[in-house]
Amino acid sequence: MIRMALLLLLLLAFPVAASTPGHFEQRAAKIEGVDYRYQLYIPGDLKASRNPPIVLFLHGSGEKGGDNQAQMSQGLPP
Q1: Contacts of 72 (CB under 8 A, 6+ apart)
Q2: What total number of domains does the chain contain?
């Protein structure tokens, strides 16, 4: 019983690091003088030495537009 109490006390004494939430960054690529805007998702637990997989989301016509936000209603963002 005392061992369990000590273990519980030790676990409570050291806070557990919460994982950082991911976020989106707005970016643009200029091709022949035209800016093509896109959103890049950066995972919160991304390690610099790790090669993460790439997911390309090709949205449908319902998410088209020039505001770079309409495509955020489908796919990875929700």
Answers
A1: 24, 39
A2: 1
**Residue 63 located in a structural domain:** yes
For residue 32, give the amino acid letter: E
Identify whether 11 is part of a domain.
no
Record the pTM: 0.58
Q: What is the pLDDT of residues 7-49, one digit of tens each?
A: 555 555 555 555 677 888 899 999 999 988 888 888 887 777 6
Q: List, in order, residues 6 or more apart from 43 with CB less than 8 Å away.
A: 22, 52
Domain extent for 24:
19-73
Which residues are bridge partners to 25 per DSSP? Answer: 40
Tokens representing residue 71 in the block: 């495509």
Does a structural domain hold residue 6?
Answer: no
- Computed from CA positions of residues 42, 46, 49, 52, in that sequence, does the dihedral angle turn out positive or negative? negative
Q: 14-26 burial, b if ≥16 CB within 10 A, otherwise e?
A: eeeeeeeeeeeee
